Request: fold
Amino acid sequence: MHASSTPDDRPASRRLSLSVFALSVGIVFFAVSLTPSLIPRPPLVQGVLGGSVLAIGYVLARLAESLWRFMEVVPRNSGGARMASRACLAFAVFAAGYGLWHATDWQNSIRAAVGMDALEQHSVLIILAVALPVFAVLFLAGTLVQSIFNRLRGWLHRFVPPKVANVAGLLLTFYLGWALIDGFIIQRVFEAADRIYAAGAQVFEPDQEAPVSPLLSAGPGSLVSWQDLGNRGRLFIDNAPTATAISEHTGRPAQDPVRIYVGLNSAPTAAERTELAFAEMLRTGAFDRKLLVIAVPVGTGWLDDGSHVPLEFMHDGDVATVAVQYSYLTSSISLLFQYQAGVVQTRSLFDRVYSHWRAMPVDDRPAFYVHGISQGAYLGMTALNAYQIIGDPPDGTFFAGPPFGSNIWRGLTAGRDPGTPFILPVRDGGAIARFHNQNGAAPGTDADWSDVRIAFLQYASDPIVFFDSLSAFRRPVWMTEERGYDVSARVRWYPVVTTFQLAVDMILSLAIAPGHGHFYIAEDYIPVWAAMTEPDGWTDKDTERLIDRFRNYQAW
Reply:
């Protein structure tokens, strides 16, 4: 038998006591969280962020204290240690006061960079009223975990040496916590989200009716039903422009574009949905059009008509677009829980369409493009098998807001030409891949564009693109260079805290002025499509007219 006394024998008041030093570190984390990042944070969100990082700072400091005591550098209750803790607390309180005083100015620096109206007052009371309860809840949760650990290692002390009991108790605590979170909490949240989004997908807008054109999915002769498209699919079909609307702008003859959308409920498996989409393509004559576009939706099934409608105007309606839904969930949830479903569906559709397109006579087949935004961009890149397409690639791939984990984007960015910035790089003069932002192609994109064309549209203020999972430990590359024009000059890197700021930015990435963050707009899609597809007789003046036509266009 080993020592029977365990930390769990302490009175409850001591188990709930706060470490002054750890609290000081947590308060500094809270103060730093008030500084600006990429997206403006409302007071409520700032309170949640502040309370969370306060708790994280507290835990990290407690771990450091444990190591300090283990090394016996300074006695825990020495006069010097107490004085140092008080000094740390005084500094932390000053830092928090300074941060709260400047919070409004810091948030307004972001708003000014993206053209949003300034806030007159960033409510300090709301921030504190939210942050303190958040910290309290997390602190109590941490105390519960500590209690479980103490009980486990106390029980193990009876059978094994103390050091072994400590390690085993820690591992068991982590295992039990992960089993609870992954096997119960996350699963229940996912199931609830799936039910909610699935129900939402069936909601009909009051003025939405099934299309009358046979060139649209769910129209006369279609193999898919209006009901099964889901609300995002119905929106995409409903937004299709008519030949009349196109001709009114161009002054040229036009035709109704082909739009094919297969909803998640249209067939039970990815392979069956692909075959349904392919049958729709044959039915509508999609392969007879001048342009053929595989559009990869985001997690909810949404497609950005701010990109698709201008392309159809640009080519007088002679465009066929095909998309297949793989999820109801938002991209963040879908990537976590239904990533493989998106990969399987996207590859299935691409392989089926590409094999048919490749077998067609070169002079008689349409120009073939792959396009996606956000998660759609990520999945679009996974569908491109270089060994499969190297001999006969699609005419172009265009990805907007590519998520930071996209392998093709990361590889091209890492291999950028020397001296070109991370936020808007140039690779081999733009001979294959080109990067664009609100101001067009990256400066230095002067090479002729080859037959293999890859385009990226990305805003410097987009956290989905520029999140860095290692920013807890090192400064992100884009913070070591000159800031993008729509990024606050006051953005700074802070260990650990910056990661959580950018994570919150990703959640808020659309809560920003159009044309910034992850809010991509028609005016910025148009120049990229014009350069990639090279419409007959197209001029810069045509681009400007089309931009004017779709300025402030809302595709929601």
